[in-house]
Amino acid sequence: MKKHWLLFGLLSSIMLGTALSFNLIDFPRGTQVYIKTATENLFDMPGGEQIGTLQKGASMLVLEDSGEWVKVRLEGWVTKKSLTDSKLALKGDGYRALQIIVKERAEAEKILQQLRSGADFRKLAREKSIGPAAAKGGDLGYFNRGDFRPEFESAILKLKPGEISDIIQSEIGYHIFKRIE
Length: 181
Hints:
Blueprint: H1 2-21, E1 32-34, E2 39-43, E3 50-55, E4 59-66, E5 69-74, H2 88-91, E6 95-102, H3 105-116, H4 121-128, E7 139-143, H5 150-157, E8 168-169, E9 174-179
Antiparallel strand pairs: 1-4, 2-3, 4-5, 6-7, 6-9, 8-9
């Protein structure tokens, strides 16, 4: 009889170890769980559209365990100003801009003069900008209202597509923008 319990215990340990190694353990509804990998994608449904990325340690409650997938509810705090109750508000009036950043005001003034004389913004951005978008010709991509620093957004939104901003100073350096859309 003791041999049977010993064998049962050994097999149970092996099965538990196997389940743990393949993450096949069930997580009952209401269980507090945490992301254990550096990052994990969050999907709207199993195999569906990615809607976010979670960092290691992100806390969630299990809503449903369904085989390889677990439906979760995130737990945490965000500032009210970052929220909306309208999905339509997320679309907003988008805009797109190019940017050149340089360290010295004199260099920014020289570049602005060249741009106003017809120089190619993208070419100058690749050659002169110290910004992360320099390799892409200064292309910052698309933004919606509220996505960008207020002083930059204000300057860009005053422009019509194709127009170039005045020089804007920041802690990084001197910025020049061109609105694309």
